[in-house]
From TrEMBL:
Residue ranges annotated for the Glutaredoxin domain, each copy included: 16-80
Gene name linked to the record: grxD
Protein name: Glutaredoxin
Family: Belongs to the glutaredoxin family. Monothiol subfamily.
Entry keyword annotation includes Cell membrane: no
Organism per entry: Marinobacter lacisalsi
InterPro entries reported for this sequence: Glutaredoxin (IPR002109), GRX_PICOT-like (IPR033658), Monothiol_GRX (IPR014434), Monothiol_GRX-rel (IPR004480), Thioredoxin-like_sf (IPR036249)
Transmembrane residue ranges: none
CDD domains assigned: GRX_PICOT_like
Length: 108
């Protein structure tokens, strides 16, 4: 499976997924830490991928998403954005709405 197929598979299998440095319990950078905290505040389950564990994925995702930095949050297969965008959406309430809607779709 090539890296693009791997990414597509991860996005199809996980309606809410964050590609980050480290894990939600032990983020390896401040941007990942703040982004995952905003996501956790929504109260729904989400998947994560530690990009530090896979250099090929780390580089391939930048090309796939056309987004050069991490973390990257995807909801329903669509790139939402990185830290600044996620934090803005969290403050406005938009993030919680999107996350809850995606979680509800998964349950259905």
């Amino acid at each position: 499976m090539d890296i693009n197929e791997q990414i597509k598979s991860q996005l199809e299998e996980n309606p809410i997924i964050i590609y980050m440095k480290g894990t939600p319990q032990a983020p390896q950078c401040g941007f990942s830490s703040r982004t995952v905290q905003a996501l956790m505040a929504c109260g729904e389950r989400f998947a994560f991928v530690n990009i530090l564990d896979n250099q090929e994925l780390r580089e391939g995702l930048k090309t796939y998403s056309n987004w050069p930095t991490y973390p990257q949050l995807y909801i329903n297969g669509e790139l939402v954005g990185g830290c600044d965008i996620v934090l803005e959406m969290s403050e406005s309430g938009e993030l919680a709405e999107m996350v809850k809607a995606a979680a509800k779709e998964q349950e259905a």
